[in-house]
Write a structure and sequence with these properties.
Layout: H1 4-13, H2 15-42, H3 51-74, H4 88-94, H5 101-105, H6 112-140, H7 147-210, H8 214-233
Length: 262
């Protein structure tokens, strides 16, 4: 019987599939680190207090990238090129989710509207990241090789999600509520389609590496499509609600950047 645990156990037990999984994850986290670093450097003067939190977000993402690379190194593996169709972060950017890289490469201050857009997009993508890491933590928190990494990244992703909720509520109270809801809805509907496509692509690559049978591959693809249907019919709404988090000022302190998994 297929389950999330058995599926991921199969992926991490094989060096080639584990290397592909970690390479994809490391690439996405590193890209997120760069994006947040640039946004922190370009925040408008009126929002200078946000810069340290955005910088911490970026530092966390960089750390996650190093963690995935360290997990590969521990098994004597080198990263592999990320297939373009599995590059979640770049596909989001290509579909207009997040601030354009061309804009971030310029040394021009962002506007308050840009910051609102960045936070709304982050609220959607951090929901996905938090849920994915919660699933891995549920099954692998006690794993001798992955447990510490999974717990650390999961805690960081929960902090990122809490920070997005708190800052977006602050902007909503300042009069940006309608804009935030519009961006959240547009972003969520686009993200669920991109996530479906990336999931199908990743599973296709994993299937070739692990030699999955056609019925098994078809069952996994059907499960991914069913998840998309659920999200399209209403599951996306969990990505657009806003509530004051229990973790207040979640990114208010210094980032922990140490990585020791060797």
């Amino acid at each position: 019987m297929l389950s999330a645990r058995s599926l991921f156990q199969e992926i991490i037990d094989n060096d080639e599939s584990f290397r592909l999984f970690c390479s994809i994850a490391a690439s996405g986290e590193s890209q997120g680190g760069w994006e947040n670093g640039r946004i922190a450097a370009l925040v408008p003067e009126s929002e200078h207090g946000l810069a340290p939190k955005i910088a911490r977000h970026g530092a966390d993402e960089d750390k996650h990238g190093r963690i995935f690379n360290a997990l590969m190194k521990k098994r004597g593996l080198e990263p592999v090129p990320v297939p373009p169709e599995t590059d979640y972060t770049m596909l989001l950017e290509r579909h207009g989710i997040g601030l354009a890289h061309e804009q971030l490469k310029r040394d021009v201050r962002l506007s308050v509207q840009d910051i609102v857009t960045y936070l709304a997009h982050s609220r959607v993508t951090e929901q996905r990241a938090s849920e994915q890491m919660e699933m891995l933590r549920k099954h692998f928190a006690d794993d001798p090789d992955l447990g510490r990494a999974v717990r650390m990244i999961s805690n960081d992703e929960d902090n990122h999600l809490a920070y997005c909720h708190e800052e977006l509520l602050r902007f909503a109270y300042a009069g940006h509520g309608r804009t935030i809801q519009r961006i959240l809805r547009e972003c969520a509907l686009a993200e669920i389609a991109i996530y479906r496509d990336v999931s199908l692509a990743v599973m296709a690559h994993m299937g070739r590496v692990l030699g999955w049978s056609k019925p098994k591959a078809a069952a996994l693809a059907a499960g991914i499509q069913a998840m998309y249907v659920y999200e399209r019919l209403g599951g996306w709404r969990r990505m657009v609600s806003l509530r004051m988090p229990e973790r207040r000022d979640a990114l208010g302190g210094p980032a922990s950047t140490s990585v020791e998994f060797a």
